[in-house]
Amino acid sequence: MKALLDTRVFLWLLVEPERIAAKVRRALEDPAHTVFVSVVSGWEIEIKRALGKIQAPANLTGSVQALRFTELPLQFRHVRELARLPDRHGDPFDRMLIAQARADGLTLVTHDRDIIGYPVKTMPV
Q: How far apart are CA 121 and CA 111, in angstroms?
């Protein structure tokens, strides 16, 4: 499996892993699976941290590496896929994560029911 974490799931893994079902955590920890964290999530976290809306580890790159996940950069092919998405979700960060998952054939690991309604493979937490 190749998976992309949504921002909330990534934060839960860092600070509240018990919020994620044990079955999902095992899948994400399986060395046979590749788990990506998008730079889009890092961008969202830093914006929300600056606004005082969340607390998160200061070193997101170190956190991704410590979990043995892979950083997913934002590329123009992701932006092209974004243009193909129906406009049903108002969160621009979530929409970009959906586009990245679709463009790269990734399973999006999420808790967000609005994301699950998009034409993208998901793994609910």
A: 13
What is the tens place of the pLDDT at every residue in 18-50?
A: 999 999 999 999 999 999 999 999 999 999 999
Q: Vertex 52, ends 51 and 56: CA angle to 5°?
A: 110
d(CA 34, CA 119): 21
Structure tokens at 98: 């959906």
Burial 102-120 (b: 16+ CB within 10 A, else e): bbbebbbbbebeebeebeb
2-124 is classed CATH 3.40.50.1010: yes
pLDDT, position 87: 82
